[in-house]
Amino acid sequence: MEQVSDIALCDQIKKRIQKEGAISFRDYMEECLYNAQLGYYTSGTNPIGWNGDFYTSPTLTPAFGATIAKQLEEMWHYLGKTAFTIVEYGAGTGALCQSILDALKTNGPMYDVLRYYIIEKSPLMRQLEKEHLAEKVTWCDSIDQIPEINGCILSNELVDNFAVHRVVMKEELKEVFVGYEDGFNEELRPANTALKNYFSELGVELPYNFHTEVNLESLTWISEIAAVLNRGYLMTIDYGYSNPYQLYRRHGTLMCYHEHTVNDCPYHHIGQQDITSHVNFFALSHWGAKAGLKTCGLTNQCQFLMSLNFRAALMNSLSSEEDVIATVQKINRISRILLMEMGDKYKVLIQEKGMKGEKLSGLSMVLPGA
């Protein structure tokens, strides 16, 4: 049985289409995820955890954040051990922020000069974060509200939730629009100049009948970051590809998550399921470079964590009161999820500005061509 908000949001989108005509899939996805009252991320329901639709790495173990903290300490060292700003986009439950701060407390000189800002779009997530994050943390609506940034801007599973345009190559590039007639339906229209220029700029020629997504919002996002970052790094952690245009990805990468199951139908559970697409790290690196961000490297989550001695952080995070068998089982279970199940699918892209190209420990093994 559909939930009330599911029906209500469906009705809102249907009325908009009946009034305006078919809307781009990008606008449809934006409504599903971020409608002011009924969107998936704005309706007041926590999507993360056992009672939600998915897990994130920071909620599985504080060792994930502690490992990232180790990389942040190295960045602070390269910045001259002066005032250091961390900006986290979309902090979710606040688990990553909490584990990073807890780990950095052991480094008194760094912690004393540390500032931590969270940019949070979801009112519910901001409320959850404020319930257990107090020390060092300031909340902002946008990055341009933050004073001069020397440090690291980071995100974990953020960019995959930006609303995307869906396109397909026919006799020319076409964009997917969403109409309504006895249910939602899709129609193809000639792609606009911005979408055509996206592929032209990347030097990509799509084969006939190739479907893919275009995340124009991520280009705006990375340009804004490059404009305000004075010196330091941008760390983007998400699932995605360095090359999303290989033939076996010809059906695109759009996915939906509902109650810990995956489906490929964005017209079900409207406002009640997550809609995502894999991140194009090639595009992020390209447009970041155009905006002034140099790519330090791209690696997968497994290599990143292992290069920073994740297993040691995991051991330290476990209670000493647990018996040896329980401890070993927990280590193996978390390691399997973060290093194997998510380890190759998730990537870590680090870009820098105003630095001297110092080698970062987390990038000891970069992906080919990165």
In terms of topology, how is this protein built?
Elements: H1 4-20, E1 23-24, H2 25-34, H3 57-60, H4 62-78, E2 84-89, H5 95-104, H6 108-112, E3 114-119, H7 123-132, E4 137-140, E5 149-156, E6 165-169, E7 173-180, E8 184-190, H8 193-202, E9 211-214, H9 216-228, E10 229-241, E11 255-258, E12 261-263, E13 274-276, E14 279-280, H10 281-291, E15 294-300, H11 301-307, H12 310-317, H13 324-341, E16 346-353
Parallel strand pairs: 2-3, 2-5, 3-4, 5-10, 10-14
Antiparallel strand pairs: 1-7, 6-7, 6-9, 7-8, 10-16, 11-12, 11-13, 15-16
Short description:
The chain has a single domain (about 1-310, about 345-355), classed as 3-Layer(aba) Sandwich (Rossmann fold), CATH 3.40.50.
What would you call the structural class? alpha/beta
* pLDDT < 50 stretches: none
Strand content: 15-25%
CATH topology label? Rossmann fold
Please tally the β strands and state the result: 16
Q: What's the oligomerization state?
A: single chain
The CATH top-level class label: Alpha Beta
Describe the structure.
The structure is a single chain. The longest helix has 18 residues, at 324-341. This protein is 38% helix and 24% strand. Strand 3 (114-119), helix 7 and strand 4 (137-140) form a beta-alpha-beta unit. It is α/β, with parallel strands linked by helices. It is built from 13 helices and 16 strands. Helix 4 packs across helix 5 (95-104) and helix 4 crosses helix 12 (310-317). The model has no long low-confidence stretch (mean pLDDT 90). The strands form three sheets. Strands 2, 3, 4, 5, 10, 14, 15 and 16 form an eight-stranded mixed sheet that branches. The protein is globular and about 60 Å long. The chain has a single domain (1-308, 346-354), classed as 3-Layer(aba) Sandwich (Rossmann fold).
